[in-house]
Amino acid sequence: MGPYFANATDPLVDDALAGFAEAHHELVVHDARQGYVYARRRSASRRVGLVSGGGSGHEPMHLGFVGEGMLDAACPGRIFASPHNRQIFEASCEVAGPDGVLHIVKNYTGDRINFGIAAERLAHRGIPCARVLVDDDLASQSEDIAVGRRGTAATVLIEKVLGAAADKGGGLEDLAALGASLTSRCRTIAVASRAHTSPTTGEPAFTLPPGVLEYGVGIHGERADRSIGQEPLRELLERMAGALLDALAPTPDTPLVVLVNSLGAVTRLELYAVFHEVARVLSERGVTVARSKVGDFTTALDMRGFSLSLLAGDDRTIELFDAPARTAAWYSGLEP
């Protein structure tokens, strides 16, 4: 049976996808044959369908952000594995608008390949398609990493802002340009004291001695380039927030969107303490927290860790961030 509550490891993703659609039937429709979900309702002004996806095990990303004001469809792969290009193609055909479809893709080789193949198939079908490649992970910014920075938790912020822009009738080129701009203005750093538990072996993906943190861990359990000794939360957040601020270099009047995200096993009690220290650091650095979200957005199964994301916004970003949305994992400004 393994370490997780499941009938067996293999059907866990399919069972969870079916259960998600059953639990949120007022929001999403489940295509069980092709393996994706799509929004039951969307704005009549939307001219472009928004599609994202990636490996399972990161819930609520991406399924939890399908619905009014955010994604039109999401395609889950197996645990920590890319969705098949067939899923992406079929979901894109289902939700494409008059101006086509925009793929929001985290920067991993498998995702890039499969979304790329789906885009080629859409072109043959005559459906315009563009891509936003999210690469927010500061820890994987290195000349030694050929594929570049990984895509992690800030993907959710980009999906929210692009969803609002799509609801305002944005065209494909405009949305792709906005997505590229947003991606250039967001960074994430993650830390963990314990790796996730492998669904197949029941063992942790890696082990750390007591009192040691993996600084810059990836959402699939990728090891960081360094481990650090566990330190008081204040010092840890000075390190993390300071690194993000150095990378983004916001001015004092730049409105920041802050995302504090559990990687699976960190409690809300701890997350709010994290945010308290983040807010203190940002205030001391003279920058403005315009909006914030705290909770589970992009997990890594049961990893005991958290990530911190900053998005350097502007007036338009904040306006779109505040726009109404109603999904399983994000609610703002819409009547139920």
UniProtKB/TrEMBL annotation:
Gene Ontology biological-process entries: glycerol catabolic process
Molecular-function GO term, any one: glycerone kinase activity
One GO CC annotation: cytosol
Domain DhaK, chain residue ranges per copy: 8-330
Alphabetic keyword roster: Kinase, Plasmid, Transferase
Any single Pfam family the record assigns to this protein: Dak1
InterPro entries in alphabetical order: DhaK_dom, Dihydroxyacetone_Kinase
Protein name: Glycerone kinase
Organism in which the protein naturally occurs: Streptantibioticus cattleyicolor (strain ATCC 35852 / DSM 46488 / JCM 4925 / NBRC 14057 / NRRL 8057)
